[in-house]
Design brief:
The chain contains one helix and five strands, in the order E-E-E-E-E-H. The chain is of the alpha+beta class and 78 residues long.
Length: 78
């Protein structure tokens, strides 16, 4: 489960066994968890995050999308 980025209280990561899915990133803060697709960026699922916080997280995903895609391709493959 490689951590790609820590930003404030958020951890951005993916599971190394997710080869069958399109590129995405998981975001965790304490017991809160969300999953964002990377191409195009969009919310896939969320547990416990408010809609306001999800909008802020999506902005972080947008800003770091290229780095997340590079990490996805490196760990998971294209």
């Amino acid at each position: 489960m490689p951590t790609i980025l820590r930003l404030s209280s958020y951890r951005f990561f993916f599971y190394s066994n997710e080869k069958g899915e399109p590129p995405h990133i998981h975001v965790q803060r304490e017991r809160f968890l969300a999953k964002f697709w990377l191409n195009p960026v969009g919310l896939a699922s969320s547990k416990h995050f408010s809609s306001h916080e999800l909008r802020a997280i999506q902005k972080h995903v947008d800003e770091n999308r290229q780095m997340f895609m590079e990490a996805w391709n490196e760990y998971i493959g294209s």
